[in-house]
Specification:
Elements (H helix, E strand, L loop, with lengths): L8 H12 L5 H7 L11 E2 L7 E2 L13 H35 L11 H10 L9 H17 L13 H10 L6 H11 L8 H31 L5 E5 L9 E7 L2 H11 L2 H9 L5 E6 H11 L3 E3 L4 H5 L6 E4 L8 H7 L3 E4 L10 E2 L7 H15 L13 E5 L3 H13 L3 H9 L4 E5 L11 H12 L2 E5 L1 H8 L14 H10 L4 E3 L6 H14 L11 E5 L5 H12 L3 E4 L9 H15 L2 E4 L3 H19 L13 H14 L10
Helix pairs in contact: 3-5, 3-7, 3-8, 3-21, 4-5, 4-8, 5-8, 7-8, 8-20, 8-21, 8-22, 9-14, 17-23
The chain binds Broken Fe4S4 cluster.
Broken Fe4S4 cluster binds next to helix 11, helix 18 and helix 21.
């Protein structure tokens, strides 16, 4: 039965143990608790104390008269606001850390990527000539913080979008103002008795999501790169087999790299390693889960042991001595679960306490000291370890494809450009591009939709970029390794062989979806693929989404002109008008649309149709895979076969 819950062999293995020992997990709780058929479709309004009103009958309205369209749109808008707030607040904390580092108040951090600092300074209109790095960093942090509270004008980073896109936002009045302001706007407008026009609510939702994508999240990505370095490709490993039987296992989980980067320093401290040995361990083994894992994975090569739905199963190995969590995607179920094992769970964010769990508040001013204390607690707990069951699964991958690196990979240091990528799409060697992102969801088989969709896309010569738990999902099945080129269509395979990249590129954590916005903007401005993101033959997917952050991400892609497909049932399904407006209405206004398509086969079919439609609109050649696949490694293999047969002499052959 476990194979219907997950396709991950390590998770299935551990689920069997949990089931036989009566240990509760999200997988069986999802079976026992069916989703509320009213709330899950957007038909329950609890925005005032006269309700909750459940609008289940045709034409029924709430006590205040709110229609199903208003209720569904308001509920959806609040999801966008919560998601945008979460991402953006993460971005604010990164800006505050940069400020503290630049002013000498966070001595354990320094500017690791000065080149990126200069680039961001130019976007934020910060002068760099002749100034010390820390002065520049201080002003960059201050200017970034202004973006959160901006009351007039628009978020500066909107200028990074193609001109046509900026004009669309201005014409529609959805160019975001301050990042915080747009979140507050939605919370105000969805209060009882305010905005009761579903179209207005949905257009405002786009503005709030854009404040996340082109504001809070984009700043977060940039500042994280400044502080910890812009990712470049490196080899790394995924899945539970990366836990160690004879070392202290410490797992970082959540989203922010500020603490996890310090934990990494602490576990490599010779004194800490000696201390671990004094307790009978062979050393200290650091691994991660969810997006904190993505952050340390892509910059430092720290292995990931799993994505969102793997977190409880990791505890069930009995091998984790300490799990330290920061913000977002941390299941409360970890608290009672860790008590059934020897694992110590430590919360660290002032915004993410869990009742009954040890809390050591993180403070960037004393970062390394706190990190060392936490690591020491893990070491001390090693002696309490009992039986362990660590699945053997380990998968290899290459991670760290920042947009800067893709640029470099395609043209080298002096001629870095997206020209080769655009040319590949124009020639039909690539049919199009896709971003596949988002979470796991216990209502669907773990990783199944991610891997199906990605396999089909690359088979059809669609280059895929991934972030978040989706990227970890595909890492577990080898899609993020250059060898995965064997699953790619002929054109994509040739590109992978020529450039030496996998057909599926890991671009970071969920906050790093902004890197995809940057790639799309650069493709649009490079020339030959129209003049706007909406012109590009591309699609977005979140096949196993579950969080409000995913909804915000989906909406900022739609607002940027991308056809975006979510798996699972629609959270607004009970309002056909809202469903239609998110598709046809948004497409008419902004060029992008959002559709919920639970069937992955149908999702892929519609995505490819859309890509072909965009190709036709640009006047590009029809996609024809038979034109490619005769060069690169494939040609070499054929020639070698002939040489072995004795039918070809390479020295005299005309190729
Ligand atoms: S961690 S938001 S489950 S991607 Fe970013 Fe994964 Fe989704 Fe959390």
């Amino acid at each position: 039965m476990t194979d219907q819950k997950s396709i991950d062999p390590a998770v299935c293995d551990l689920l069997e143990i949990c089931e036989s020992e009566g240990i509760s997990t999200a997988f069986d709780r999802a079976e026992q608790m069916k989703p509320c058929p009213i709330g899950s479709k957007g038909a329950c309004c609890k925005n005032c104390a006269m309700g909750p009103c459940r609008l289940t009958k045709e034409g029924q309205v709430g006590i205040c008269g709110a229609t199903i369209d208003t209720v569904a749109a308001r509920n959806f808008a609040r999801m966008v606001a919560a998601g945008s707030a979460a991402h953006s607040d993460h971005g604010r904390d990164m800006a505050l850390t940069l400020l503290a580092a630049a002013t000498g108040h966070a001595p354990d951090y320094k500017i690791r990527d000065v080149r990126k600092l200069y680039e961001v300074a130019s976007f934020l209109d910060v002068k760099t000539d002749g100034r010390p790095v820390n002065d520049i960093a201080k002003e960059v942090a201050e200017k970034a913080l202004i973006e959160f509270g901006r009351q007039q004008g628009n978020i500066i980073y909107l200028q990074r979008a193609p001109r046509k896109r900026q004009q669309i936002w201005q014409n529609l009045g959805i160019a975001p103002r301050g990042i915080d302001r747009e979140v507050v706007d939605i919370m105000h407008r969805t209060h009882a008795g305010n905005d009761q026009d579903y179209k207005s609510l949905l257009m405002s939702s786009l503005r709030t999501a854009l404040a996340d994508g082109w504001g809070g999240s984009m700043l977060s990505t940039d500042i994280t790169d400044i502080l910890f370095g812009s990712p470049v490709p490196l080899a790394a490993r995924a899945n539970m087999g990366n836990l160690s039987e004879d070392q202290v296992n410490i797992v970082v989980h959540g989203h922010e790299p500020t603490l996890s980067e310090m934990i990494l320093v602490a576990v490599n401290d010779p004194e800490m390693i000696e201390y671990a040995k004094s307790k009978g361990a062979k050393g200290i083994n650091l691994t991660g889960i969810c997006c904190t894992a993505n952050e340390t994975l892509m910059r430092q090569g720290v292995p990931t042991i799993g994505n969102f739905l793997s977190q409880e199963l990791a505890i069930a190995t009995g091998a984790i001595d300490l799990m330290v969590v920061d913000i977002q995607c941390i299941m409360q179920a970890l608290a009672p679960l860790t008590k059934q094992f020897h694992t110590l769970l430590v919360t660290t964010s002032a915004k993410a306490h869990i009742d009954g769990v040890t809390h050591i508040e993180f403070d960037e001013h004393r970062a390394l000291e706190i990190a060392k204390n936490i690591v020491k607690m893990g070491i001390d707990n090693f002696v309490n370890r009992g039986d362990v069951h660590i699945p053997k699964d380990i998968d290899q991958m290459v991670v760290g494809f920042s947009h800067e690196y893709i640029n470099y990979a395609l043209g080298g240091f002096y001629r870095g450009s997206f020209r080769p990528l655009n040319d590949a799409v124009i020639q039909g060697r690539l049919r199009g591009v896709a971003g596949v992102v988002g979470c796991n969801n216990a209502r669907t088989c773990q990783d199944a939709a991610h891997t199906y969709i990605v396999r089909e896309l690359i088979k059809n010569d669609v280059l895929v970029v991934m972030t978040g738990c989706g990227a970890i999902a595909c890492a577990k099945y080898g899609f993020l390794s250059p060898e995965a080129a064997q699953y790619a269509g002929p054109g994509l395979r040739e590109i992978c062989e020529a450039v030496g990249i996998p057909p599926v590129l890991h671009m970071g954590s969920c906050v790093d979806n902004t890197r995809i916005l940057t790639v799309l903007s650069q493709m649009a401005t490079e020339g030959g693929l129209g003049e706007d993101i909406a012109d590009i033959p591309g699609v977005g997917f979140a096949p196993e989404w579950m969080s409000e952050k995913a909804i915000s991400i989906g909406c900022y892609f739609v607002g940027s002109g991308v056809y975006t497909i979510f798996g699972s049932e629609s959270p607004v399904a009970n309002s056909p008008a809202v469903v239609r407006f998110m598709s046809e209405g948004w497409e008419e206004h902004v060029g992008g649309k959002l559709e919920f398509i639970p069937d992955p086969e149908e999702a892929v079919r519609k995505a490819l149709e859309h890509i072909d439609k965009k190709r036709a609109a640009l006047g590009l050649v029809e996609y024809d895979p038979t034109r490619y696949g005769q060069s690169g490694d494939a040609l070499m293999l054929k020639l070698l076969e002939k040489v072995e047969e004795g039918t070809l002499n390479l020295y005299s052959a005309k190729l």
